[in-house]
Amino acid sequence: MDNIVISKHPLVKQKISDLRQASKTSQQVRELIDGIGRLLMYEATMDLDITTTGEQQSPVGTYIGQTVSKKQALVPILRSGLGLLNAASDFLQNAEIHHLGLFREETTLLPVEYYNKLPRKCSADECFVLDPMIATGGTADAAIQILLSWGVSKIKFVAVCVSKEGIERLAAKYPDVTFFVAVVDDVLNERGLVVPGIGDCGDRLNNTA
């Protein structure tokens, strides 16, 4: 699907392989998620609109300045989305940051919203949703619905490891949302877990497994 961008970067492939290893410490998991996030954000920001800011002065002459013209917001999905936030905010230093709290109920596998502090009025032109995992896609679906209802006109979703079933369902349902992912795994088991996957990212990031 045209709105699914799977990274072909060799370092992403290497870092995913390392991240899958169950023996990695939480510190190592955080470093790997951050590194993958930076490579994905490079791709996700390639088409940002630029405008000129007039004549500027360098140490040796004048030049025409350029800046990103639209307003971005970063939306990490608590709690594992925080693992991608440093990478994203380093790329988009002037972006707003808004947190959404969503979790998947273990029995029904349905998303449950427990935290939402979006401003009453949409204040961004473009949102980057940050969540390392897309399994069934229910949590991602809920997050996209919340942001569309908020009024944002453009959404990009940055994820590390996704299931083929989940990402294809989301991409078909939201053709105007672009999904930037590091790896797509074919298997989604009966418990809604991606196989081989990367495990419970929130637990691995926070050493709470």
From TrEMBL:
Named cofactor requirement(s): Mg(2+)
Domain of life: Eukaryota
EC numbers, comma separated: 2.4.2.9
Domain spans labelled Phosphoribosyltransferase: 7-208
Pathway named in the protein's UniProt entry: Pyrimidine metabolism; UMP biosynthesis via salvage pathway; UMP from uracil: step 1/1
Gene Ontology MF term list: GTP binding; uracil phosphoribosyltransferase activity
Annotated family: Belongs to the UPRTase family.
Matching PANTHER family: ADENINE PHOSPHORIBOSYLTRANSFERASE, URACIL PHOSPHORIBOSYLTRANSFERASE, CHLOROPLASTIC
Protein known as: uracil phosphoribosyltransferase
Organism name: Coemansia reversa (strain ATCC 12441 / NRRL 1564)
Taxonomic lineage: Eukaryota, Fungi, Fungi incertae sedis, Zoopagomycota, Kickxellomycotina
